[in-house]
């Protein structure tokens, strides 16, 4: 038996001990006040409401160690080609490092590549904000449209929304991702092409949705401006400089990055230009500082105090030991409304894998389904199921101590709701409590008995609360890096390559094959009945 399988067995024994213990009882022992939180400055991870104890935690840390997590972290910072199927380094940490970190990739200093390009795109952002870079007629850009999808969209759209308080007099930043023409069409309606700057964001510059939308947007500019003037309203963010040139974007308007930055880890590269345009270079740099603080912590903190490691291990416990297939990520922060969608790609595209790096079947469940929306809205939607449904759905709560709006007096209510929900999930309400409460209200005993089962909350439903002082650019960077490294930790334990995404290829290829078959008179005879039937029905509904 390998050391790892022994530890997996130990963890199963831990669960055998813990599975019939209620969080109420675990708290009643009075031993959960210490040892169930970890902090980095003002950021605290509170996992006291997880169905775990210190022994199980020790075994999880042993599992991380036996899986080679410490070496893997060192290897990432060392520029090793951890993305084995694409033979690439995994160096997104280099995008927010400082020169003194002396990171190297493929034989060269990361800072030599990153720093000049970062300076270029941040200078451009501030020049657009000040009006120094303007349209051909010298008018200031009022609006920016970022056209991109997946990692070239989700990080920027999330961060621009999260940091809207820091926008100052920056332009309005809009996002178009879907190849559904309604997306672009809805965004450009009401915008003035003359003063709209369009960013085409695509690592590969081959993604069909993005290139199709970019072509349509370019036509929109050229119909309204001269072809030459339209060039002033375009920029590209990509690693594929040949394709951006072929598309007709002048080199001075192309901001690059490198193949060792995965799409879903790219928002600190030039892909983040829309963020910098929205909040300015200083705030963007603050965000990078927050990222780096978590990077340094991940690299140097002992496993038992390492926040991303602990969050990753709690996820392993929930997914592999408690057999929970989904996780609800619930920010109690309206401006983090797109954070769950961002983490969804980061987590599920990274670890949604069924074979190990060596090509063997992974013997465990991997990436859980990540989903969620801001509290308190979610409470009035699906919390019924979280509290009384048949499945146990662990929750990550995210909360700031300080309000991020002018209506500071509402923040106590928001905070109270977050704390109340983790309490209700963990401790529930027993049938005895329900019975006593209803009888005290004067209800007839028979009626009380009819209602008891319906009004009982089983509790014992796990959650972790991530608390920070305030939702600043620095805090956002730190929070994102916390989740990035959590995903890394889990990928190492499952033994998968967290940095490729072959699973998205087949659908892309098939879409290109199906597209011509949607034309009138196309020969459908070679198709399987389901696709053929669907096309025939679509054709009959077209007119
Ligand atoms: O930035 P690109 O190359 O247009 O890719 C967009 C997205 O497409 C994917 O390759 C697959 O959907 C993602 O990993 C990536 O973030």
UniProtKB/TrEMBL annotation:
Keyword Isomerase among UniProt keywords: yes
Q: Does the keyword Iron-sulfur apply?
A: no
Which InterPro entries does the record associate with it? G6P_Isomerase, G6P_Isomerase_C, Phosphoglucose_isomerase_CS, SIS_dom_sf, SIS_PGI_1, SIS_PGI_2
SUPFAM superfamilies, per database record:
SIS domain
Output the CDD domains linked to this UniProt entry: SIS_PGI_1 (cd05015), SIS_PGI_2 (cd05016)
| Broad class of enzyme this protein falls into | isomerase
Gene Ontology terms for molecular function: isomerase activity
Task: Name the keywords, alphabetized.
Answer: Cytoplasm, Gluconeogenesis, Glycolysis, Isomerase
Catalytic activity entry: alpha-D-glucose 6-phosphate = beta-D-fructose 6-phosphate
Q: Tell me which EC number(s) this protein carries.
A: 5.3.1.9
Its annotated pathway reads: Carbohydrate biosynthesis; gluconeogenesis; Carbohydrate degradation; glycolysis; D-glyceraldehyde 3-phosphate and glycerone phosphate from D-glucose: step 2/4
Pfam families documented for this protein: PGI (PF00342)
Name the job this protein performs.
Answer: Catalyzes the reversible isomerization of glucose-6-phosphate to fructose-6-phosphate.
Q: Which family does it belong to?
A: Belongs to the GPI family.
Output this protein's name.
Answer: Glucose-6-phosphate isomerase
User: What does the organism's lineage look like at the top?
Assistant: Bacteria, Pseudomonadati, Pseudomonadota, Alphaproteobacteria, Rhodobacterales
């Amino acid at each position: 038996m390998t050391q790892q399988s022994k530890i997996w067995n130990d963890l199963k024994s831990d669960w055998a001990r813990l599975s019939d213990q209620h969080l109420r009882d675990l708290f009643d022992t009075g031993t959960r006040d210490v040892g169930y939180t970890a902090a980095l400055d003002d950021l605290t991870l509170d996992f006291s409401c997880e169905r775990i104890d210190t022994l199980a935690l020790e075994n999880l840390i042993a599992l991380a160690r036996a899986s080679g997590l410490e070496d893997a972290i060192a290897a990432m910072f060392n520029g090793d080609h951890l993305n084995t199927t694409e033979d690439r380094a995994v160096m997104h940490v280099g995008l927010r490092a400082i020169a003194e970190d002396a990171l190297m990739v493929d034989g060269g200093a990361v800072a030599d590549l990153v720093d000049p390009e970062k300076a270029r795109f941040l200078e451009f952002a501030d020049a657009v904000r000040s009006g120094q870079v303007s349209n051909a007629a010298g008018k200031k850009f009022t609006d920016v449209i970022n056209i991109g999808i997946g990692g070239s969209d989700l990080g920027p759209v999330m961060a621009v929304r999260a940091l809207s308080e820091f926008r100052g007099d920056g332009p309005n930043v809009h996002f178009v991702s879907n190849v559904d023409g309604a997306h672009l069409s809805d965004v450009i309606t009401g915008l003035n092409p003359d003063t709209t700057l369009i960013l085409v964001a695509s690592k590969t510059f081959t993604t069909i949705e993005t290139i199709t939308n970019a072509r349509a947007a370019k036509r929109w500019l050229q119909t309204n401006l001269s072809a030459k003037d339209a060039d002033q309203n375009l920029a590209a963010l990509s690693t594929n400089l040949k394709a951006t040139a072929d598309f007709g974007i002048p080199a001075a308007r192309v901001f690059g990055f490198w193949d060792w930055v995965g799409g879903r880890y790219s928002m600190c590269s030039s892909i983040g230009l829309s963020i910098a345009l929205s909040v300015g270079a200083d705030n963007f740099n603050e965000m990078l500082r927050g990222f780096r603080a978590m990077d340094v912590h991940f690299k140097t903190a002992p496993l038992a105090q390492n926040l991303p490691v602990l969050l990753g291990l709690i996820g392993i416990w929930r997914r592999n030991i408690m057999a929970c297939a989904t996780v609800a990520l619930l920010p109690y922060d309206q401006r983090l409304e797109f954070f769950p969608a961002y983490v969804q790609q980061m987590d599920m595209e990274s670890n949604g894998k069924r074979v190990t790096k060596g090509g063997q079947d992974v013997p465990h469940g991997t990436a859980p389904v990540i989903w969620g929306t801001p509290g308190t809205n979610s409470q009035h939607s699906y919390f019924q199921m979280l509290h009384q449904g048949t499945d146990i759905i662990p929750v990550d709560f995210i909360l700031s101590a300080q309000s991020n709006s002018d209506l500071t007096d509402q923040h106590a209510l928001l905070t109270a709701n977050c704390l109340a929900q983790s309490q209700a999930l963990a401790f529930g309400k027993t049938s005895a409590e329900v019975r006593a409460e209803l009888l005290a209200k004067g209800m007839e005993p028979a009626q009380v008995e009819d209602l008891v089962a319906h009004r009982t909350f089983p509790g014992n439903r796990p959650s972790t609360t991530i608390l920070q002082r305030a939702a600043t650019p620095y805090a956002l960077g730190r929070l994102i890096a916390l989740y990035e490294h959590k995903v890394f930790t889990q990928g190492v334990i499952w033994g998968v390559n967290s940095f490729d995404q072959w699973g998205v290829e087949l659908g892309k290829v098939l879409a290109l094959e199906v597209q011509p078959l949607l034309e009138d008179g196309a020969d459908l005879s070679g198709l399987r009945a389901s696709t053929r039937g669907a096309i025939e029905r679509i054709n009959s509904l077209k007119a």
